[in-house]
Automatic annotation (TrEMBL):
This is Similar to Saccharomyces cerevisiae YHR139C SPS100 Protein required for spore wall maturation. Keywords: Signal. The keyword Signal applies. One of its GO terms (molecular function) is asparaginase activity. The lineage of its organism: Eukaryota, Fungi, Dikarya, Ascomycota, Saccharomycotina. It comes from Maudiozyma saulgeensis. Residues 35-47 have a biased composition (Low complexity). It comes from the Eukaryota. Residues 35-58 are annotated as: Disordered. Residues 1-20 form the signal peptide.
Amino acid sequence: MSIIYRLITVLLFWSAATNASPFYPYAKRQIDNATSPTNGTSSPTNGTSGGSNNGSSSSTSSSVEIFVTSGNLPSNGSAKALFNTTGTLNITQLYKVSEAVNQSLQSSSGGGIVILADKSSFESLSFFLSIVLNTEKAVVITNDIEIGTTVAMDSNSTGRGVLYVGKSKVIFAGDLPPFGVPVGVVGDNLEAYWFYDEPQKSGMFSMNSTLRTTYSNFTNPTLNSEVAVPIVYEQGIASILSSSLGNSSSIGGLVIVSDKVVSNVTTQSTSSSSSTPTFPVIWVNPPGKISWLSEANIPGYAIAGGYLTPVQAQILLGVAVNNNVTSPESIRALFP
């Protein structure tokens, strides 16, 4: 009983006190001990990790609008400062970015958007904007304005979804596993080279996806309420953890990170109504493990996160809860 009480206390404390992950709570559970929050992101890779050079761009768009969330403003005064943070953006800040970008996209007939951000926010910001922005215009997240502007002004960047590119000059898609699948690269001549001629988005963000056809309200750039979606790294105690948190009114959802196969799933999943959480629970693989997680090896009350990382699963679930989508069937349809 003391372990469960301490765990709930720690989770709810971090829910109010930390911004280490977008939806605040980021706990790591190691049997009895909770450790310090982590960001769960990896460093960008150097090089292109494969692919072929299909050629550079031949034209550029007319202009871009620059928003700053981290770092210094350009000396020419061409950017809009939203805030300046060196840590991972929290959910309130993510929604402020989406609101500013959405207003710009609706009012501007010009080119794309460049967002200057700390590298620690690349994963969360790019995936969040992939959900809440439904646009064909270029939206590029970067920690180098010159490189980001090069990509955003390239005419072939449109229709590719939210992109991010750092000082390594490798371009990644925000709707895919972080730093895993490069879609292009910026050359030393500051021209963008794309590995795929045709712009494409992953299935869950395509025009015919459940996200776009059923939940178009997710593009509403307004945070309706504070959403607590903890990420918990478990080591064999997932069923005890989720059932003990099942009646907590302060939690909108839970992301459990584990690469262990759960045995006796059927018995474990529906043994009693008290063991079933009252909020949605997403089960995902650990960061850095790019593989598919199916529902065959997780408890029956949980929803498989597919290829999504813990942070991506947390963001998608948090946006859903923010828009009052909480039923297991609806949440399951959103995840890949």
